[in-house]
Amino acid sequence: xxxDRSEIDPSDPYERSAQTFPVLSEAxxxxxxxxxxxxxxxxxxxxxTRGERSVDFFVVLAGSIEVLDTDEHGVANIFTTHRERQFxxxxxxxNDREILVTGQVGEDGRVLRISRAxxxxxxxxxxxxxxxxxxxxILRRVGLIRHAHGGATLIGSGHSGDTQRLQRFLERNGYxxxxxxxxxxxxxxxxxxxxxLTPEQLPVVIASSERVLRxxxxxxxxxxxxxxxxxxxxxxxxxxxxxxxxAGLAAAVYAASEGLDTxxxxxxxxxxxxGTSSKIENYLGFPTxxxxxxLAGRAQVQAQKFGARLAIARPxxxxxxxxxxxxxxxxxxxxxxxxxxxxxxxxxYRKLDVPxxxxxxxxxxxxxxxxxxxxxxxxxxxxxxGGGNSAGQAAVFLSRTVRHLHILVRSRGLAExxxxxxxxxxxxxxxxxxxxxxxxxxxxxxxxLRHVTWTDVKSGEERRHDISNMxxxxxxxxxxxxxxxxxxLDDKGFVKTGTDAAGSTSPYATSKPGIFAIGDVRAGSVKRxxxxxxxxxxxxxxxxxxxxxxx
Length: 551
Description:
Layout: H1 17-20, H2 26-32, E1 37-41, E2 46-48, E3 57-70, E4 76-82, E5 102-114, H3 116-125, H4 127-147, E6 152-156, H5 161-172, E7 177-181, H6 188-194, E8 204-208, E9 211-214, H7 218-224, E10 236-242, H8 246-257, E11 262-265, H9 292-305, E12 309-311, E13 316-320, E14 326-330, E15 335-343, E16 347-349, H10 357-360, E17 365-366, H11 371-376, E18 381-385, H12 389-398, E19 404-408, H13 420-428, E20 432-435, E21 438-445, E22 449-456, E23 462-465, E24 470-472, E25 476-478, E26 515-517, H14 529-547
Parallel strand pairs: 6-7, 10-11, 10-15, 11-12, 15-26, 17-24, 18-19, 18-24, 19-20
Antiparallel strand pairs: 1-5, 2-5, 3-4, 3-5, 6-8, 8-9, 13-14, 14-15, 16-25, 21-22, 22-23
Helix pairs in contact: 3-4, 8-9, 8-14, 12-13
């Protein structure tokens, strides 16, 4: 039967079979044979199972491999089938996380089995094959996320701070999931009954038919979903990168690509503050713009392709700089040792000094403007506080779906702190009103934020609006508490750089030899994505000089 092209969604990776499920040429398969071994397989045999780690890579030589997931009730669903000269896998083949799906032989045949180590070697050596595989893996993960295949189910109120926390973690880590909003989704009641849950126990994450997590801490959720990896405390890495924002990911890519044993420690998810940007339009090479999450996702895969490891949901809590090698301690007590350390822990948004502010954090006060937050405030009146690029990007993005958007700045306008292209879009939008010389002075609500009052500091005039979602983007405070006196900081808490105690000079050298600082955490740095990426790439040369002083 002919396919009705009008029914095909070009944004769905599953509809782009030539790229998502490509058929390799006979010549490519012939070259791949030297990396693995040919095996005869029988129908029904599982080649890999959801929840396993470090599984092998398979190419179908004859027959087929069915890929399936299971729903919350344990029912299996075959959602794609690989046939001759097609291959298995997705992005988790580049790390040691638990895989999301199961692969079973659909019909008797033969496969080429390639071990994880040989797979990595093949992707690096056979550039043309590696490019096809990488593109397919990225699209397959997008497809898994879009269709919630191999993922988890999150049940809770969409306006709850804990529901938003869990959803944000899943989204920013690219983990497939389905949100059942009890305030809006008619299916939610059935799920509560099925798992004997009450609204007071929400939010919950259903990781499988056997695992129900009741409002888990982020680290516990990451462990339950297999997103975390076991770290070897005896292993000494060449480079420990703390922070997976643009600067940290760039450092990981360049360090790993140059053969350094590299590990990245990240407290939440790759991307840092940039990962929450709806669209970055002034980053070189992306004329139509790219979201911060997409940029971070690509950088993460790139770093893993070269062998870097990422430990997510593991905030650094201490740095022992009194010993060689240096030791970084994480929140769960695990320790990572490194001959050198790159501090890329970035900065966090400052908070407003307003009564009841903490009460409404996560209950109407946000620090990011992504599709998740846009869905929460669609058709409503919202407020953005701040005059930098992050605030401008949030305002432009949200204005597409909200009823009206207000921007508050304490200065006289936006021109001095925001890129001109954003200023012009804001000033020309009928849905955006700029309020200069204003500050928030009052917050009201019940369980959630309901009203915001702001005051004109010049005239003293107060205005009270029915606003349930306020986005606060008012500058940054350095994330340096974990350094615990190891490094010299300036009066604002940013890391001083330039010369270390041994007299070595580098724009990124801290007061301790072998410890470097890059990106937003560094005193005097330009707070832009491009500059962070630049610092991350350049600092690796200084790391090399420290590790190999006689080369």
